[in-house]
Design brief:
- There is one protein chain.
- This protein is of the alpha/beta class.
- The chain has two domains: about 5-125, TIM Barrel (Alpha-Beta Barrel), CATH 3.20.20; about 145-210, no CATH class.
- The chain is about 30% helix and about 15% strand.
- It has helices spanning about 5-10, 30-40, 55-65, 70-80, 100-110, 130-135, 200-210; strands spanning about 20, 45-50, 85-90, 120-125, 165, 170, 185.
- The strands form two sheets. It has a four-stranded parallel sheet, covered by helices on one side.
- A hairpin with a 2-residue loop joins strand 5 (about 165) and strand 6.
- Helix 2 (about 30-40) runs parallel beside helix 4.
- The chain is globular.
- The two termini are about 25 Å apart.
Length: about 210
């Protein structure tokens, strides 16, 4: 949605690798070819994670929007045809998505697009926002405690080394953007401190190993 995203990626790739999380609906063939040129001009990698919530329109579109199933697969196909193999990112919004059979169905979808080496990432659901009404909210016990501190510390969590920068301030992580208690300040300099892992979403990240770190 950011009209300057290609310029942003071009600058980013001068400093290191980048991963783009996208719903794929505006990944047209010309845009994908431009993105491929950016990767070819950089010594760093540019990876794409295309989000999908179901393996057909009936299971995906009620969540992603009418007509998005076809458009998402078109976007993934356009990336592949341009020389960029996307990672299909699926949440367990439907219980079957994370099963062996569910994973096989998503991999088959990618193969039907001609992607001979399909890539799939399955993520757990964060019980936040509309999801609390669709299924359930976090239980009281789903929170981290000091006794659960890993022997090697919390370095596996994205928030241990990253922050989410927006035009409304800086947040501890992308999952908790717009949650007042997760806003750390107006600038990155305000975030050079520890953050208490007090939200139930922190429990999900730790227990399921959720991270966008590369």
């Amino acid at each position: 949605m950011n009209p300057e995203i290609e310029d942003i990626l071009e600058v980013t790739l001068q400093y290191g690798p980048a991963t783009v999380l996208t719903n794929g609906v505006i990944l047209t063939p010309p845009r994908c070819r431009r993105l491929k040129r950016l990767t070819d001009a950089s010594e760093y990698s540019l990876d794409f994670r295309v989000s999908l919530d179901g393996y057909d329109a009936a299971t995906n579109d009620p969540i992603r929007g009418r007509g998005t199933f076809v458009r998402i697969l078109e976007g993934a196909s356009n990336l592949f045809r341009a020389g960029l193999n996307p990672v299909l990112t699926v949440t367990e919004v439907h219980a079957a998505n994370g099963t062996v059979r569910g994973k096989q169905r998503f991999l088959r979808l990618l193969r039907e697009l001609g992607i001979d080496k399909p890539r799939l990432k399955v993520l757990p659901i964060f019980k936040l926002g509309a999801e609390t009404e669709r299924t359930e909210a976090y239980a009281r016990w789903q929170r981290l405690t000091e006794s659960e501190t890993p022997e090697k510390g919390w370095g596996h969590l994205q928030c241990s080394s990253s922050r989410m920068v927006t035009d409304r301030g800086v947040w501890v992580c992308p999952i908790l953007v717009n949650y007042p208690e997760a806003k750390m300040g107006e600038a990155l300099a305000d975030t050079l401190r520890d953050y208490p892992l007090r939200h139930s979403a922190c429990w999900t990240c730790h227990v399921y190993g959720v991270s966008c770190k590369t």
